[in-house]
Amino acid sequence: MSILVIGEALIDIVSTNGAPDRYAPGGAPANVALGLGRLGDDVEFLTDVGDDFHGGFLLAHLRESQVDILTSPRGATSTALARLSEDGSAEYEFQLRWDPDSSLLGSSAHSILHFGSIAAFLSPGSAVIDRLLDDAAEPLVSFDPNIRPSIIGSHEEALPRFEALARRVDVLKLSDVDADWLYPDLSEDAQITRLLDLGPSLVAMTRGGDGAILATASARVTAAAAQVDVTDTIGAGDTFMVSLIHDLHAQEAALSDLSTAELMNLGEHAAALAAITVSREGADLPWAADLTN
């Protein structure tokens, strides 16, 4: 069965001091779908793009990575202006629309349902995600909130929405920056405990160069970041998510039964994939062939 990814696809306009702006396909869920396709997974992507040049560019880019796209192109494609600092980190400004056509989904079941980022919070498409979760027959559901405070509203508005979604998933991946915004008064350890208490069987928290923490109710590990020369960090977290989904897709054991060694293997593999992406310019996620080089 295929993996279903739901969420935004957009054009990243990358701005760096002293250099011309460059345009690149982006959107966290689009990156996840693309990364899964590049690793050879059968993936469908429900999204919302325009019928303009940018939309055509996005569709061609995703199809080149073997993604089956479910969309009804119309209007203008969403954009994100990413301003890169000297250390390679990015800040974003968005022009967005999120209104996917869920009638394009067939009746066949999927092995995994993944959703995330802006699409989980932005109306009217967020209601589509709710309906699909209501009807979900997938054995595994994953969520990456990829918090963008300038888009999703105030903390008072966004936290209840985040927690309502987190209660409905099996795998929750987020960054330490996301966690600090959601739970600023909690320590890192307490944040993870709080997230597990919401109901996910597996929580993964990425921490940039400090590695990642993976936790279940019975095990908790810290996987080191792979050593690499960083070009920029665009797509690093999305690559980590891709790796988790890809590996869990082949995992037979229940998430709650994962051993410490199995959690560490998941984290180390994800860190290795993310290292490939950050060594490249833009969200250029690994292909299967990169894993054998």
Automatic annotation (TrEMBL):
A Pfam family assignment: PfkB
Keywords: ATP-binding, Kinase, Nucleotide-binding, Transferase
Catalytic activity, EC: 2.7.1.4
Class of enzymatic activity (EC top level): transferase
InterPro entries, A to Z: Carboh/pur_kinase_PfkB_CS, PfkB_Carbo_kinase, PfkB_dom, Ribokinase-like
An example Gene Ontology molecular-function term: ATP binding
Residue ranges annotated for the Carbohydrate kinase PfkB domain, each copy included: 3-286
Entry's family note: Belongs to the carbohydrate kinase PfkB family.
PANTHER family from the UniProt entry: HEXOKINASE FAMILY MEMBER, PSEUDOURIDINE KINASE-RELATED
Name recorded for this polypeptide: Fructokinase
Taxonomic source organism: Brevibacterium linens
